[in-house]
Design brief:
heterotrimer, A alpha+beta, B mainly alpha, C mainly alpha, A: alpha+beta, Alpha-Beta Plaits, two-stranded antiparallel sheet, elongated, C: mainly alpha, two-stranded antiparallel ribbon, 11 helices, 1% strand, globular
């Protein structure tokens, strides 16, 4: 018995099975994704760079309130407009500034969830994640214009900036695009 | 003659500051060591290098806005952090969540447990010199993170649960994808076990290292795999079931000797049990709403509440104090499993060598984000 | 003796330069080879960005190490700190003077008379290799001590104990080959394997195993890489070294790996001989230069090294010593006794 134990210790089958496993992987397909040339496509719900549409935004400040770290900064004023036909005076809110300090953002998506417009006026489902810059204070502080035009952001291939007409994916399931299209048709 | 021998030369203890910048301290843990050669005479963990004041942040945020902050406690297993917080607040508010939400939560939490255990295995093995399991486990972890991304759009810091349910429903095809992965996963666990479980070097490094008896483990307040490795059948999912854990069937694996090897076996078996839970949840996944009827602005009654969940590392508890009609916690204390488990480090490494300290830190499976908060 | 200058100066000088140049190039590409092999074992691709398919990676690494800032810790023992890398690289290169890469060669017909391709063949070749290569441990100990860092010191001490205890079974494993070959000259050992119609790994399978394991330990490779155990001692004895001094440690490690590989090839697998060197039927294999056989044997050994690294965890310090003294030493002693007995039986009883 002791001799059997001795030989089982001498002939390391336990080690050989490990070697066989790693050795078999030597010839298998590798799982590396060669990043700049190949990219894995983010899921439709991927929370990345912000999209923002100032035309849809109703200036309700809910996104700023929902932000856990208060990085959305909104400044507005009220304009009184006169309808040239009826002569009625109408109050209208105008957004002066809508800034997001993206360098501090933790991409939790609560602002998008809070947005009451349909489709959302602020959304993160843009599949875009290449926002790295060499300078963070200027380049990663996004004003209203930059949020619309995405100047300085490398968009995910096939994604257009908000001012070219990007619409958010609806995270609850069906695409907002179809919804918006269906609404227009009806 | 007789009497103690005079040493020929001065023998002095060596003080060694192990960390905070060290490959094996899993972040920024610092261990102040007193060494006699390579033998450890005293080990004192020093923490606080990653303190971010998360508990204080909770006091300024409405309940739902606290959830992104909980992601950053144990950033390796975000779903259970979310779950712990929302379960606590739901207990405080007396909310019952719809069954579909509960089942999806359980799926997410168990996926999180698997991904956390995979990362633990990877780092534990690499600490003990085996570099290859790291890459094999990360391959599978990547698939789990892809599932998370498909569900909620983030890979690590999910922010995937809300008080009263869930923010999103599962996307189309998600269940099939998850089922496919769970089908293939046990074979991958077998691969890791081929590399390690019977390997004589692995056994030499782990059997009998960092032994803690069941009584001692309870005295030190250990929870999770370190407690179960010592043979105590204690799992919050079984003893205080939350969500719908009382409806699924799973075993609580326990060890015998309370050493590093047993804790390793317990975690490996836990992964298999998690697969079982996920498969049951997916089979029974009911239709229906994913959110209970809760007001937009949550107002809590005055009171205190403590609830805990079984996080991958042990019992993760939240203690919340609220003021009347408070929309945010007046005080929130987190009971992180890693913090409590870490305090047993000096006992576990007493009299071992420096190389074993690395094994013990690995087997405790600590995450500094949760310890320092 | 009619051309003493040519004979004693120019040819050796050319050989030295050629050996050093080839060796350093091979060592540089060995790091690349290792990274690729490890990557392939670990379902990834490894370095493939610098140059075509990553083939310029070692050059980029060397350049980076050359231009890197060369730090000397303020409280280090300056002289010893600088001496240590030299102490480790010199023996690692010196050993190559006696390693027989291939038999006699005419350098593809360039020379009228064949000359030996190795630098020299001394009659105590294997002893020289063992002796010189164990000087390298001083570099590790002194480097670890002079850095004035506790991690380095522990790495150096571990290394000293490890090298000393694994030299012994390694020596005995070599002794069993010497018994079979009857010579200490490495060239002669290869020739004996041709004459004996048999490579020595057949009778010496146990000696081969012991020699290989000890070789892994001698070169501080996984699973015996305690002196530089990253997760325990950061980088062990070379924690405080940077730039070119670090590169010298690195070069020495890989050069030593090659030495162990070459010795395995020479002692157990017939050096530069082709498989079945006496079988006429396979004579067509002679068109392949003998150096190819030598290199491929070394390559296989090195590959197994890397395979080990990609598979096994690391021993603990005391366990390493236990393996060395409690297993390898008795086994190697028993092996020497068995082989000596076998030779006795063969020479006296069977012939008589």
């Amino acid at each position: 018995m002791a001799l059997g134990e001795f030989f089982s210790k001498l002939i390391p089958t336990d080690l050989f099975s490990g070697l066989a496993l790693t050795g078999s992987y030597f010839f298998k397909k590798k799982s590396t994704v060669q990043y700049p040339e190949e990219r894995t496509e983010p899921s439709p719900r991927f929370r990345g760079m912000f999209g923002y549409d100032v035309d849809r935004c109703i200036d309700c400040h809910l996104c700023a309130k929902a932000c856990p770290i208060d990085i959305i900064f909104i400044r507005d004023h009220t304009e009184v407009e006169e309808d040239p036909e009826t002569g009625k005076k109408k109050k209208r809110k105008v957004i002066d500034r809508y800034d997001i300090d993206v360098k501090r953002c933790m991409f939790c998506g609560l602002c998008e969830e809070a947005c009451p417009t349909e489709p959302k006026s602020i959304w993160l489902t843009t599949k875009t994640y290449e926002t790295a810059t060499y300078e963070r204070n200027e380049r990663l502080y996004f004003t209203k214009e930059r949020l619309m035009s995405w100047e300085g952001v490398t968009a995910y291939p096939g994604v257009v900036p908000p001012d070219k007409g990007m619409l958010p994916e609806d995270p609850s399931g069906a695409g907002a695009r179809e919804k918006a299209a269906g609404g227009e048709a009806a | 003659m007789g009497g103690p021998l005079e040493p020929l030369f001065d023998v002095e203890e060596m003080e060694l500051s192990f960390g905070p910048q060290h490959p094996a301290t899993h972040g920024v843990l610092r261990v102040q060591l007193k060494l006699d050669g390579e033998k450890i005479l005293d080990a004192r963990p020093i923490i606080g290098y990653l303190h971010r004041g998360t508990e204080k942040l909770f006091e300024q945020e409405p309940f739902n806005q606290c959830i992104p902050h909980t992601d950053r406690l144990d950033y390796i297993a975000a779903p259970t952090n979310n779950q712990g917080f929302v379960v606590t607040v739901e207990k405080l508010l007396g909310i019952t969540i719809p069954p579909r939400a509960a089942y999806i939560r359980m799926i997410l939490a168990e996926l999180g447990r698997i991904s956390s255990h995979l990362l633990w295995l990877a780092t534990h093995a690499i600490d003990l010199g085996a570099i290859t399991p790291f890459f094999y486990t990360f391959r599978e972890r990547e698939e789990i993170l892809d599932l998370f991304e498909a569900y909620c759009g983030a890979r690590l810091t999910l922010n995937a649960m809300r008080v009263g349910g869930l923010p999103y429903d599962l996307p189309d095809g998600w269940v099939e994808r998850c089922a496919e992965m769970m089908e293939a996963f046990p074979a991958h666990i077998d691969e890791y076990e081929t590399l390690l479980t019977e390997n004589r070097i692995w056994k030499k490094r782990t059997v009998g290292i960092g032994v803690i008896s069941a009584e001692e483990a309870i005295d030190w307040g250990l929870t999770g795999p370190p407690l179960r490795g010592s043979g105590v059948k204690w799992d919050i999912r079984k003893v205080f079931p939350y969500d719908r854990y009382d409806e699924v069937d799973f075993e609580v694996p326990i060890g015998k000797n309370g050493d590093t090897y047993d804790r390793y076996l317990v975690r490996m078996e836990e992964m298999r049990q998690s697969v079982r839970i996920i498969q049951q949840c997916m089979d029974r996944l009911p239709d229906g709403p994913i959110m209970a009827k809760v007001p937009k602005v949550l107002r809590a009654p005055e009171g205190m509440v403590y609830a805990s969940v079984e996080a991958p590392k042990g019992e993760l508890g939240y203690f919340i104090v609220t003021t009347p009609k408070g929309s945010q916690p007046y005080r929130c204390h987190v009971r992180p499993p890693s913090f409590v488990n870490l305090q047993s480090l000096p006992v576990l490494v007493d009299g071992l060598l420096v190389a074993d300290l690395v094994a013990v830190i690995g087997t405790l499976d600590i995450v500094l984000g949760e310890i320092d908060r | 003796m009619d051309q003493p200058l040519y004979q004693f100066l120019i040819i050796p000088a050319v050989k030295i330069v050629a050996i050093l140049a080839v060796l350093l190039l091979v060592v540089a590409y060995l790091t690349f080879f290792e990274r690729k092999v490890l990557a392939y074992l670990q379902v990834r691709l490894g370095p493939n960005r610098v140059g075509p398919k990553g083939w310029l990676q070692p050059i980029a690494d060397a350049f980076k190490l050359l231009v890197k800032e060369d730090l000397i810790p303020s409280k280090a023992e300056r002289f010893v700190f600088l001496l240590a890398p030299c102490l480790i690289i010199v023996p690692a290169l010196l050993v190559w003077s006696v390693i027989p890469f291939t038999g006699e060669t005419t350098v593809f017909g360039l020379l009228s008379e064949p000359i030996p391709a190795y630098l020299t063949d001394i009659n105590i070749g294997i002893l020289f290799v063992l002796g010189v290569s164990s000087v390298g441990v001083f570099g590790i100990i002194l480097g670890g001590w002079a850095s004035n860092s506790k991690f380095s010191l522990m790495g150096g001490l571990r290394s000293a104990a490890q090298m000393v205890s694994y030299e012994v079974p390694m020596g005995f494993a070599v002794v069993s080959v010497l018994l079979m070959a009857g010579s200490l000259s490495l060239v002669r050992i290869v020739e004996v394997q041709r004459e004996a119609h048999m490579w020595f790994f057949l009778p010496g399978i146990l000696a081969l195993g012991i020699y290989f394991i000890c070789g892994v330990a001698e070169t501080n490779r996984n699973p015996f890489d305690l002196p530089e155990a990253e997760s325990e001692l950061v980088a062990g004895f070379h924690t405080e070294y940077s730039g070119m001094k670090f590169a010298l440690f690195f070069l020495a490690e890989y050069a030593n790996m090659l030495v162990i590989g070459s010795l395995v090839a020479v002692l157990f697998f017939g050096g530069w001989l082709r498989p079945f060197p006496n079988v006429e039927f396979l004579a067509f294999l002679d068109v392949i230069p003998p150096f190819f056989w030598f290199a491929s044997k070394v390559g296989v050994v090195i590959f197994i090294y890397m395979w080990f690294r990609g598979t096994f965890p690391r021993y603990r310090f005391d366990q390493l010593m236990a393996v060395g003294w409690k297993w390898l030493l008795p086994l190697s002693l028993a092996n020497v006794a068995v082989i000596a007995l076998g030779i006795l039986v063969k020479n006296h009883l069977l012939k008589g």
